[in-house]
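TICKET: design request
STATUS: open
ATTACHED STRUCTURE:
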C-alpha cells in the first residue's frame, strides 16, 4: 500500500507575500556572500489551484521552498523510513530536476529527466545521507511552450508504526472570527479530515463561536466531527487540558493536535504532522513552526530549547529570527538545512500522542506560559522527544507589538518559570534562575515599572506557599492580576495627544536611538551604573514639576532600562503603538519593593531544595486527569 508523506501545495490565499513559502520562480546569485535575486517572475495568475500551476515557456520554477521541500533529515533521524518515491505530474515539454542538500546547505543534483505531453515522473530516493541535515526538492524548467504542473507527492510503501487518527483541540477566548476561519478551512480540506477523528473547540469566552452567523453552515459541513465545549476561562493550559481529556476517551484517536485560536492554518501541515507522528520510531511530540500572521513571509519560531543553567527558553539561532523568506528563501539560507533538535514546541500547533498523555499526565494548571515547555520537558524525561518539524507551520499573531512582560502576564512569566525550574532543573539551587529573577526586578524598578514588580512578588509568594496554590488560583490569578493594575497609574494607556509634557527652551525632548554614554553598559560600568541608579532612586526626591508632567518622551524601542532611570518621569509609546504610558518615579514604592525583592529571593534561594521536593512530589496530582476532571466539573456548577 502506498502512503502519502507529503503533498506539493500552493497557498490557500491569493496573497503574493505567501508565494516565496511555496514556490520560487526566481533565479538567485550570491554577491558578497549575500543572496541576490537576479529576476522576479512570481505571479499569482500562474497559480491555478491548490495543487496545479502554470510554468511559463522558458522559465524555471523551484519547489525547494519552505512548504514544498521534503525534510529528508528529519525523516531519516526520527523514523525508520528509508525509501521514498517522488512523483511529479506535468503536461507539456519540460525538464524535471531533483536536488538534495546536506546539513551545510550545499546543493547536489540527484537526477534529471526530460518529459513531454502528459507525464508522470517517478524518482526513487533513499534516505541514508541526511544524518545532520538536508532537504530533497525538484525544479521544473519549461521548454518552448508553457507547462502545466499537475501535482506531486512524496510517498512510501512502508507501513506506519501506528495508524490512529488525531483529535484537534482548539482553545479560544473571545476570538470567534479566527476560529470560524479555521473551521471553514478544515471543512474545505477532506484530505485533512481523513486523519481527524474529532475537532474539540474549547470555548472559554463570552463571545461564543457557536453564536456567530457563519457557525451553523460550517457546523453542518463538519457534522459529528465538530464538538463545541464551553467552560470558564482556565487559560491555555485549562483549555488544552480539556481537549486532551476528551481525546483520551476517543478510542479512534492516537493523537491530539493542539491549535491556538488566533491563527491561520496551512491544512497540509496538519496532515503532515499526523503522518510523521504515525511513522516516528517512538511516540514523538510533533511541533510546528510559527510564521507572523501580520507579516506572513517571516518565520518567528522554530526549534526551541530550555538552557539548563539560567533555566530559560530560547530559539536555536535566536539572533537570526525572524527569518524573512521574501528576502532569502530556503535554498539561499544554509542554516535552515541543519537538523535543529528542540526541547519543546509552543502550543500554537503541536501534535501529542495519546500514549504520552496517559503516561505523564496533562498540563500543569499554569493558566498560560511555560505549560507547553514544562510538558515537553516532562515527556523528554520519560524518553519521548519533541520534533520541531520544517514544512509544518501556521501563522500566529506574533509578539511584535506586544510586551507581555509588563502587563498582567508578568505574574505567569515569573511564577511558571520558577515552578518549571523546581520540577525539572538539575542544577543546584536552580542555577542562575534566582539571580536572573532579581535582576529582572531591578530593571523594572529602575524603569519605574512598579506594576510588573508587584505581580512578580505575588508570584514568588504563591510559589513559596507550595504547589497547592496552582490549582487553587487557576481561575482567579488572571482576574486578580488585572485588578491590581488599577493601583498603578503607569498602566493607563493615553490614546490621544492630550498628554502634557515638559519642554526645554521651548522644544519637546524626544529621545531616539542615538547612542550615549549610558548605552548598554557592561562589565564594571554596568555595576557602577546599577549601584548609582539604585542609590539615586532610594534617596532622590523627584521634582514636583516632573511628577506633574513627563520630562522626556521615548519611543518604545528606545526605552531601555539604562536610559529611563536617569529621569524622574517619562512618556513611553506603548508596544502596539496605540498610545503612551507615563512612568513616574515613586521613592516610597521603590524602597518597599526593593526590600521585598531582596527578602523574597533570599527566601526562595534558602528554600529551593525543600520546595523542589514538594513540587516534584505533587507533580502527578497537579497533572492527573482526575484532578483536571474535578476542575472542569467544578466550573460547570
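STATUS: resolved
RESOLUTION: sequence designed for all positions
ATTACHED SEQUENCE:
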Amino acid at each position: 500500500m502506498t502512503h502519502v508523506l507529503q503533498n506539493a501545495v500552493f497557498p490557500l490565499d491569493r496573497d503574493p507575500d505567501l508565494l516565496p513559502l511555496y514556490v520560487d520562480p526566481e533565479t538567485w546569485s550570491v554577491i558578497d556572500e549575500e543572496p541576490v535575486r537576479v529576476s522576479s517572475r512570481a505571479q499569482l495568475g500562474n497559480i491555478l489551484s491548490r495543487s496545479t500551476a502554470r510554468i511559463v515557456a522558458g522559465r524555471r520554477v523551484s519547489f525547494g521552498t519552505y512548504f514544498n521541500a521534503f525534510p529528508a533529515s528529519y525523516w531519516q533521524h526520527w523514523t525508520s523510513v528509508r525509501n521514498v518515491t517522488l512523483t511529479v505530474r506535468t503536461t507539456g515539454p519540460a525538464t524535471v530536476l531533483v536536488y538534495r542538500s546536506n546539513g551545510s546547505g550545499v546543493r547536489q543534483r540527484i537526477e534529471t529527466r526530460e518529459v513531454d505531453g502528459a507525464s508522470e515522473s517517478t524518482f526513487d530516493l533513499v534516505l541514508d545521507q541526511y544524518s545532520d541535515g538536508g532537504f530533497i526538492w525538484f525544479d521544473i524548467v519549461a521548454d518552448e511552450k508553457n507547462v502545466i504542473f499537475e501535482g506531486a507527492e512524496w510517498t512510501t510503501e512502508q507501513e506506519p508504526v501506528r495508524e490512529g487518527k488525531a483529535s484537534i483541540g482548539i482553545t479560544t477566548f473571545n476570538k470567534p472570527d479566527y476560529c470560524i476561519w479555521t473551521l471553514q478551512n478544515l471543512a474545505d480540506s477532506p484530505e485533512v479530515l481523513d486523519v481527524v477523528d474529532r475537532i474539540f473547540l474549547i470555548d472559554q469566552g463570552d463571545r461564543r463561536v457557536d453564536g456567530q452567523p457563519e457557525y451553523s453552515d460550517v457546523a453542518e459541513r463538519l457534522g459529528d466531527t465538530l464538538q463545541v465545549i464551553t467552560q470558564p476561562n482556565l487559560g491555555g493550559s485549562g483549555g488544552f487540558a480539556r481537549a486532551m481529556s476528551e481525546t483520551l476517551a476517543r478510542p479512534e484517536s492516537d493523537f491530539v493536535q493542539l491549535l491556538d485560536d488566533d491563527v491561520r492554518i496551512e491544512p497540509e501541515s496538519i496532515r503532515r504532522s499526523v503522518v510523521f507522528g504515525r511513522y516516528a520510531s517512538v511516540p514523538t511530540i510533533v511541533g510546528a513552526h510559527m510564521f507572523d500572521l501580520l507579516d506572513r513571509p517571516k518565520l518567528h519560531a522554530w526549534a526551541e530549547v530550555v538552557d539548563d543553567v539560567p533555566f530559560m527558553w530560547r530559539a536555536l539561532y535566536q539572533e537570526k529570527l525572524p527569518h524573512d523568506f521574501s528576502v532569502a528563501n530556503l535554498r539561499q539560507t544554509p542554516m535552515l538545512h541543519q537538523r535543529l533538535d528542540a526541547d519543546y514546541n509552543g502550543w500554537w500547533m503541536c501534535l501529542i500522542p495519546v500514549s504520552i498523555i496517559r503516561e505523564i499526565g496533562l498540563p500543569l494548571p499554569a493558566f498560560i506560559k511555560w505549560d507547553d515547555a514544562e510538558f515537553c520537558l516532562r515527556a523528554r524525561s520519560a524518553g519521548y522527544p519533541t520534533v520541531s518539524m520544517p514544512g509544518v507551520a501556521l501563522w500566529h499573531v506574533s509578539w511584535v507589538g506586544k510586551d507581555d512582560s509588563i502587563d498582567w502576564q508578568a505574574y505567569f512569566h515569573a511564577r511558571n518559570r520558577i515552578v518549571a525550574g523546581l520540577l525539572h532543573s538539575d542544577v543546584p539551587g536552580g542555577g542562575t534562575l534566582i539571580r536572573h529573577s532579581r535582576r529582572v526586578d531591578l530593571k523594572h524598578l529602575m524603569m519605574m515599572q512598579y506594576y510588573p514588580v508587584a505581580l512578580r512578588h505575588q508570584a514568588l509568594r504563591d510559589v513559596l506557599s507550595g504547589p497547592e496554590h496552582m490549582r487553587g488560583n487557576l481561575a482567579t490569578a488572571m482576574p486578580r492580576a488585572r485588578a491590581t493594575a488599577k493601583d498603578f497609574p503607569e498602566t493607563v494607556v493615553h490614546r490621544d495627544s492630550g498628554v502634557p509634557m515638559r519642554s526645554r527652551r521651548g522644544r519637546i525632548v524626544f529621545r531616539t536611538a542615538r547612542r550615549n554614554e549610558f548605552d548598554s553598559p557592561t562589565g564594571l560600568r554596568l555595576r557602577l551604573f546599577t549601584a548609582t541608579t539604585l542609590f539615586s532612586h532610594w534617596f532622590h526626591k523627584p521634582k514636583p514639576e516632573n511628577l506633574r508632567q513627563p520630562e522626556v518622551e521615548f519611543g518604545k524601542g528606545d526605552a531601555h532600562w539604562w536610559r529611563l532611570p536617569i529621569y524622574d518621569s517619562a512618556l513611553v509609546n506603548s508596544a502596539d503603538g496605540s498610545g503612551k504610558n507615563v512612568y513616574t518615579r515613586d521613592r516610597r514604592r521603590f524602597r518597599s519593593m526593593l526590600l521585598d525583592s531582596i527578602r523574597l529571593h533570599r527566601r526562595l534561594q534558602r528554600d529551593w531544595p525543600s520546595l523542589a521536593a514538594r513540587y516534584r512530589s505533587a507533580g502527578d496530582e497537579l497533572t492527573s486527569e482526575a484532578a483536571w476532571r474535578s476542575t472542569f466539573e467544578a466550573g460547570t456548577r
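CLOSING REMARK: The radius of gyration is 27 Å. The longest helix spans residues 587-623.
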